[in-house]
Design brief:
Blueprint (H helix, E strand, L loop, with lengths): L14 H14 L1 H20 L3 H6 L3 H10 L1 H6 L1
Length: 79
């Protein structure tokens, strides 16, 4: 077995060192993380807008509701 104490990420962490590590990672990779989160936010917003909630709320028959939900299954799974 390999000696884990020689690994570069091996060290004893407390809350301050863990938060400092996260902050350094976020600071180094801010631009890519920002654009990835912006893109995913726009994708989720677009998919959510395609689901007609008012139509689903107006259906009172459970069988019709299930049929309507089958059409929205792919967007719901993507979200």
């Amino acid at each position: 077995m390999a000696n884990f104490t020689n690994h570069p990420l091996y060290r004893i962490h407390n809350l301050d060192s863990a938060m400092n590590g996260i902050w350094e990672y976020y600071r180094k990779k801010f631009i890519p993380l920002f654009f990835i989160s912006l893109a995913m936010s726009l994708v989720i917003q677009y998919i959510s807008a395609s689901i007609n909630i008012k139509e689903l709320q107006s259906i009172t028959d459970p069988m019709l509701m299930l049929e309507a939900l089958k059409g929205y299954m792919v967007p719901i799974l993507i979200i």
